[in-house]
Design a protein that fits this description.
Helix content: 10-25%
Distance between the termini: 41 Å
Radius of gyration: 19 Å
Oligomer: single chain
Order of helices and strands: HHEEEEEEEEEEEE
Number of strands: 12
Number of helices: 2
Structural class: mainly beta
Amino acid sequence: MTVKKSFLNSLCSLSMRYAFTHRTARQLLVWLAFSLLVAGPSAHAAENELALWVPVTLEKKMLKSSKHPVRLMLEVTPRQADDLTNFEQLIIRPAVGVQLTKSISVWQGYAWTPLLFNNRQQTTFNDEHRLYQQLLFEKTFFKKLGVTNRWRFEERFIEGEGEVALRSRNLTRLSWPLDAQKKWAAILSNETFFNWNTTSRDGIQRGFDQDRIFVGINRELNPHVNAEAGYMLRIWNRPNATPDKFSHIILVGVNVNL
């Protein structure tokens, strides 16, 4: 897929040429954003929509003096969809993590992710509960390049499905400071989703589910709070619907470390 290939090439270039200038970083962001905006709508076989996601994440570290500190996390994300006409989904996602090393932590979480309303699919409230396990890697290379890799496995209990849907998702995220004080940072990320089973003939189907490509800017407001804004392209495979779906998402989020 053209969008995915362009994104992977950008990641390789970023990781190998870590000494590029701030000017080059800005040029890369402009080029990638332009290519995503052009490539998404050009896929005539896919349905396109404009959406707005506003994630708010709270995190607190407990037992800081311990060899393996405990991390508590809560994410709340309202999602507006269908060209911003419908409040489609609300995600409430708490989790507990244990820091194994300076860079690696393991997590157990729960998520309530009901589909509230989606006019195009003619559905109203559809409930979903999830349990998930997560392995998180976080490290800074060359004193500037922030690398995060998050592998998550979900057990999805979806209203109307015959059995538990199993899904894995892998996120790779890069950040690069844009000023000497490291208050501003450029963000590139990609997350791929894969369904491991088929729940019913007209339900979840085994195979590729979706891919999310994000380009944006992060701003540190103070030592405990940072804000992030950018553009996300979600490529959503829908084997039981024609056509597939391209979501052009405006993402504005806040992260708070208590």
